[in-house]
Specification:
The protein contains twelve helices and eight strands. The chain has 296 residues and is α/β, with parallel strands linked by helices.
Length: 296
């Protein structure tokens, strides 16, 4: 905790009243919300996103809020292709101190990125309001009940059984239909377990058990998925971008990330999950100006 720096005056002056994510989603807007990413990990696929110390991670959250993040997603386990899961105890050790430091200091919604019910429960008690589960509530049987108590839950499609094996030859007859059907089924399962359907946000899972052509097809037909309800899209710096234009790794993928973000903004995405909050916010501001030009 000693590495935590003094908060900017605008955040440190007094406790912040948290804005609800569902309220943000209901408000009229021309462009999506921006969700910042903070990885309290040593092995997330983009090295610059790794903030393994709690104080460092809390600083990153505050910095992203200052840059214009509408909400921030905090996770303590890498879900990159080939990654190994961490124990519940280790994940708690990583993320709980971050939420403790941030308690009452930020106005934007905070999301916990986890597939473990105990981690979700403890972080919700410390101020998280959103559960972002890459397994769509399938990994931990207790997650359904915990997620039902959150303000919102993000249900993501992931091909394969786990991040470790999800890129082992993914196959789809019709990736858009299969992803759409899966997300509908998970929403119904959530509702059957007592969750409120209006709290569900959908994520097609770009890069999670998909080849280049699957990712591109999902982006091309994003509007077909957006009819399900609020749609979160995470394409930021992912490997499929490096297969479109050869690069040296995630550090070279800002241009492709912004292109994908703007495409998603025009085709139904409600939330963009990004590493580069300021650059994305600026790109969306330009897009918003174009969309608003000449509007009465």
């Amino acid at each position: 905790m000693s590495s935590f720096k003094a908060q900017p005056p605008s955040l440190a002056r007094r406790p912040q009243r948290r804005v609800g994510l569902l309220d943000l989603l209901r408000a009229p807007r021309r462009v999506p919300l921006v969700m910042g990413i903070v990885n309290v990990t040593l092995d997330s696929f983009y090295p610059d996103s790794r903030t393994p110390a709690p104080g460092q991670a809390a600083d990153a959250v505050l910095r992203q809020v200052e840059q214009g993040a509408d909400l921030v997603d905090i996770g303590g386990q890498s879900t990159r292709p080939g990654s190994e899961p961490v124990s519940v105890e280790e994940e708690l050790r990583r993320v709980v101190p971050v939420f403790e430091v941030l308690a009452g200091r930020v106005r934007v919604p905070l999301s916990i990125d986890t597939d473990k019910a105990r981690v979700a429960r403890e972080c919700l008690a410390l101020g998280a309001s959103v559960v972002n589960d890459v397994s769509a509530l399938r990994q931990d049987p207790a997650m359904m009940e915990i997620a039902a108590g959150a303000e919102a839950v993000i249900l993501m499609h992931r091909g394969g059984d786990s991040p470790k094996t999800m890129q082992d030859g993914p196959r789809y007859a019709d990736v858009v239909k299969e992803v759409k059907d899966f997300l509908i089924e998970r929403k119904l399962a959530f509702a059957r377990a007592g969750g409120k359907p209006e709290r569900v946000i959908f994520d097609p899972g770009i890069g999670f058990g998909k080849k280049l052509e699957h990712n591109l097809s999902l982006l091309r037909h994003l509007d077909e998925l957006a009819v399900l309800g609020p749609l979160a899209l995470g394409a930021s710096r992912k490997s499929f971008l490096g297969r479109i234009i050869a690069d040296q790794g995630p550090a070279d993928r800002l241009d492709g990330s912004l292109a994908a973000a703007c495409w998603a903004a025009l085709h139904g995405a409600s939330i963009l999950r990004v590493h580069d909050v300021l650059a994305t916010r600026r790109a969306l501001a330009t897009l918003e100006a174009i969309l608003g030009a000449g509007a009465s």
